[in-house]
Amino acid sequence: VQLVQSGGGLAQPGGSLRLSCAASGFTFRSYAMGWFRQAPGKEREFVAGVSRSGGVPNYVDSVKGRFTISKDNGENVLYLQMTNLRPEDTALYFCARSRGPMPTLTNCDYWGQGTQVTVSA
After folding, report:
1. What angle (nearest 5°) sits at the alpha carbon of residue 80, between those of residues 5 and 32?
2. pLDDT of res. 55
3. Whether 120 contacts 85, CB under 8 Å
4. Cα dist. 17→12, 79, 101 in Å?
5. pLDDT in tens, 96-116
């Protein structure tokens, strides 16, 4: 199983970035997937999750209306489109595979390598 992340980087407040997570080594369409983030000095937190089919998204309240998670089961790629970025979105972002119907911190068994998102003027 491999989850290889790309995207991220530096954005100004109000800007946009897109994260990608290319999956291989397993049947992507059979698993719910999610995005998590960890800011310096803070615990890792759930950001967004999507069901196996990609049809049921779920978000932490702080990103609702700004972030969109999507799952391309044909290309085996998970995305996180981030808009209207805020400085508090600055963190190391991880994609993860869930063993349950929706990802949580405790039910994800494989993680991407992490990608830095920095929001600063």
Report:
1. 85
2. 87
3. no
4. 10, 11, 27
5. 999 999 999 999 999 999 999
As a three-state string, the secondary structure of the chain is CEEEEEECEEECCCCCEEEEEEEECCCHHHCCEEEEEECCCCCCEEEEEECCCCCCEEECHHHCCCEEEEEECCCCEEEEEECCCCHHHCEEEEEEEECCCCCCCCCEEEECCCEEEEECC
Read off the amino acid at residue 109. Answer: D
Tell me the C-alpha distance between 54 and 33, whole Å: 9
The answer to whether the beta carbons of residues 58 and 103 sit under 8 Å apart is no
